[in-house]
Amino acid sequence: MSTMKLHNFWRSGTSHRTRIALNLKGLDVEYIAVHLGKEAHLSEAFKAVNPQQLVPALDTGEQVLIQSPAIIEWLEEQYPTPALLPADAHGRARVRALAAIVGCDIHPINNRRILEYLRKGFGADEAAINAWCGTWITAGFDAYEALLAADPQRGAFSVGDTPTLADCYLIPQVESARRFQVDLSRWPLISAIDKACAELDAFRRAAPAAQPDAA
């Protein structure tokens, strides 16, 4: 089987979560950098890879998968161990809900193209951008933290004592929160999970600063 190719960008949160999932699955991929700052994603060459012109895109050797939720779910189905979803239906729903807080309600409205539009269309300066991002990160993390606190079986990670899909989503968002100068001390349980994940090689190797195209 040919090596899979991951088209991604070092600082992209969606790329980061996909790298974590690949690492947790023990899969090697060829790293193909798509420089968002230089608008490489808008090139005709990359449009031929992904018509939506967003990262990540995973070339499996048989087809190109787009959208990180679809890619990570495909990885879970294609490479079921180690599992990123619990065995029981309620556990899977819980993990998916936590992931969706980040993937549906925080990240999309803090994504680069949204922020570029705020800068260019509304004249937002960096203080305004940080305030905008902080608003949605705080709303999502408040809910995430409350769900963690209410879980009587809470372990070292978001759900249980092994990393799940939820942690793949959470850790890049924590990284983003730091970038936008959000004070993480408000969420001690999230901070504890971040620390637990930082001790795992799969998360360390996926970190933005560890990527070959890191600026």
Task: Summarize this entry quickly.
By secondary structure, the protein is an alpha+beta fold. The chain is 53% helix and 7% strand.
Number of strands: 4
Tally of individual domains: 2
**Which fold does the CATH topology of the largest domain refer to?**
Glutathione S-transferase Yfyf (Class Pi), Chain A, domain 2
Strand line-up of the largest beta sheet: 2-1-3-4
SSE order in H/E notation? EHEHEEHHHHHHH
Helix content: 40-55%
Taking all Cα atoms into account, the compactness measure Rg is 17 Å
Q: Name the structural class.
A: alpha+beta
CATH architecture level-2 label of the largest domain: Up-down Bundle
Unreliable parts:
none
How far apart the termini lie comes to 32 Å
Query: What portion of the residues fall into strands of 2 or more residues?
Result: 5-15%
What general form does the structure show? globular
